Amino acid sequence: STGRVGQLVVQRALDRGYNVRALARDASKLAALKSSRLVVLKGGVLDENAVSELISGVDVVLSCLGSKPKEPEIVASGTKVVVDAIRKQPIQPRLVYLSSIGIGDSHDQLLAHGVLGLKGRMFAKVIIPLFIGKQVFVDLEEGEEVVRKSGVVAVIVRPTFYVTKKSRGYMVKS
């Protein structure tokens, strides 16, 4: 919950009136998100007890795990801990798994003629390997596979880009 996307997701959920539980190794990184509806549990995604406590009794688990150079397989490993904890719940929450465009069958779609055109093919062949790094995508792919094989009710979301700066063009409100 302390990464850029995780913090934005937590903030958006709070803004919409949801009660949120967030897992953070360093809770101070969420200090700016002050709300009586936010409960921050200290721990990491590989800590089975912390994850089980985090998701106990919730309706939805939203996973925004991302890889770091020093933790190249945290997404797949952490996703396994999350789905194992979900399966142990008497009433299993749904899982929303945040992945990326270019993973799984979306990689082939990017390469296919006409889906996203030249920009999509360039993203798949140049941007992913050079700038994002193959290991990050391998980790996300393995995480998706964990979700697919888990048997939990889940949706895999594959956004293209995350933009946190003010839009200079058309704004789509969700």
Summarize the structure in words:
- The structure is a single chain.
- The chain is α/β, with parallel strands linked by helices.
- The chain contains six helices and five strands; from the N terminus they run αββαβαβαααβ.
- The chain has a three-stranded parallel beta sheet, with helices on one face.
- Helix 3 (74-87) links the parallel strand 3 (60-63) and strand 4 (94-98).
- The radius of gyration is 17 Å and the shape is globular.
- It starts with a helix and ends in a 17-residue tail after the last strand.
- The model has no long low-confidence stretch (mean pLDDT 83).
Secondary structure layout plus pairing:
Layout: H1 4-15, E1 20-24, E2 38-42, H2 48-55, E3 60-63, H3 74-87, E4 94-98, H4 105-111, H5 117-132, H6 134-150, E5 154-157
Parallel strand pairs: 1-2, 3-4, 4-5
Helix pairs in contact: 2-3, 3-6, 4-5
Fraction in beta strands: 5-15%
Overall mean pLDDT: 83
Task: Give the oligomer, counting copies of the same chain as homo and different chains as hetero.
Answer: single chain
User: Which ranges are low-confidence, i.e. pLDDT below 50, for 5 or more consecutive residues?
Assistant: none
Q: What best-fitting shape do the alpha-carbon axes yield?
A: globular
Describe the biggest sheet?
3 strands, parallel
Indicate the percent of residues in helices.
Answer: 40-55%
What is the rounded distance between the termini? 21 Å
Looking across the biggest beta sheet, what order are the strands in?
3-4-5
* Count of strand segments: 5
Number of helices, where a helix is a run of at least 4 consecutive DSSP H or I residues: 6
Structural class: alpha/beta
Q: What is the H-and-E element order?
A: HEEHEHEHHHE
Rg, nearest Å: 17 Å
